[in-house]
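Quick one, tokens below. Sequence please?
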């Protein structure tokens, strides 16, 4: 059985690491936030004090970090004296990064890993905190055929659908396209529900109607943004926990970077990114991304008239 070093134990990393423990794997954990790491200690993981400590004896590393800068710092080292993982792991250690980051950073880490004869795959996920808890995540893997095969052997414990998108960085690119679509769908869903409420409709009835009509989408089906319409979603728990608005803005920004690179037009994704920028700037960046609904419900302008 594998020994996993799991780094980054936030909203997603916590339930993923728990599922690896449940599957009977040995799990070593590290997070800069010691409270986050200690939560896994209580579940039976070894809580490491450093990167060097967490990878000792591990044959597989999984990282679940916020953004490209964190992934580069953890794998390659940083300017503050931090030594990168690529210099700390033992021979044949398999490396999986499940964070959502820019494809360029994923390709850079993959090529540096190759220089050290280490296999690295980018394997961002879709499915949210609920998918992580239920071990039903979708993994979108970029890397070699061998890397993909190795990744499947581990990711089957935390996910349900595991896709091979292509070479290094292609997993990230596919994930960015998916999240651009998600940002647009969530914005549209918030907008339609808010319009209905303003015109006297019950949001639960309207949601049921749209679910059986052509407006049906993932947000309506599994993640309704209007509080009280659906149980066990962030909207019905003050928009906690979940996929933070700042992370959605980051992902839509990654879509804009990619579009600049390929000279693609992405007006919808750009608009969604700007909606999140406005919403986050009002102090909502740590709330789940479905809290964009509150941006549409903000009646201050009307009241001030
Ligand atoms: P999070 O902010 O809740 O967790 C990130 C964790 O990484 C934090 O506990 C933080 O302390 C830790 N960390 C940061 N830098 C570190 C370092 N140098 N060393 C060790 N630990 C470090 O974020 P999350 O919601 O778990 O998301 C993680 C990644 O997954 C992001 O890239 C996000 O875009 C992606 N993602 C999130 C969701 C979701 O629903 N939350 C869904 C799909 C993908």
């Amino acid at each position: 059985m594998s020994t996993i070093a799991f780094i980054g134990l936030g909203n997603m990393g916590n339930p993923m690491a728990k599922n690896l423990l449940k599957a009977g794997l040995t799990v070593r954990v590290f997070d800069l936030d010691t409270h986050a790491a200690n939560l896994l200690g209580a579940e039976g993981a070894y809580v490491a004090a450093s990167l060097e400590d967490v990878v000792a004896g591990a044959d597989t590393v999984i990282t679940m970090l916020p953004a490209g800068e964190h992934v580069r710092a953890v794998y390659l080292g940083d300017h503050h004296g931090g030594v990168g993982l690529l210099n700390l792991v033992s021979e044949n250690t398999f490396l999986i990064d499940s964070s959502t980051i820019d494809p360029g950073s994923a390709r850079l880490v993959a090529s540096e890993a190759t220089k050290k004869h280490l296999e690295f795959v980018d394997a961002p996920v879709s499915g949210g905190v609920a998918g992580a808890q239920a071990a039903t995540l979708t993994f979108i893997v970029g890397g070699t055929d061998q890397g993909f095969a190795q990744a499947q052997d581990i990711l089957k414990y935390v996910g349900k659908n595991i896709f091979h998108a292509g070479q290094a960085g292609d997993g990230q690119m596919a994930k960015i396209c998916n999240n651009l679509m998600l940002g647009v769908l969530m914005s549209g869903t918030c907008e339609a529900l808010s319009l209905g409420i303003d015109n006297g409709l019950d949001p639960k009835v309207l949601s049921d109607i749209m679910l059986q009509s052509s407006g049906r989408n993932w947000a309506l089906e599994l993640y309704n943004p209007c509080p009280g319409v659906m149980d066990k979603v962030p909207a019905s728990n003050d928009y906690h926990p979940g996929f933070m608005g700042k992370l959605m803005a980051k992902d839509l920004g990654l879509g804009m970077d990619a579009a600049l690179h390929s000279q693609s037009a992405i007006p919808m994704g750009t608009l969604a990114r700007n909606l999140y920028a406005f919403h986050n700037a009002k102090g909502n960046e740590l709330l789940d991304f479905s809290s964009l609904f509150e941006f549409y419900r903000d009646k201050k302008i009307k009241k001030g008239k």
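The domain at 3-168 is CATH 3.40.50.720 (Rossmann fold). Confidence is low (pLDDT under 50) at residues 300-305.
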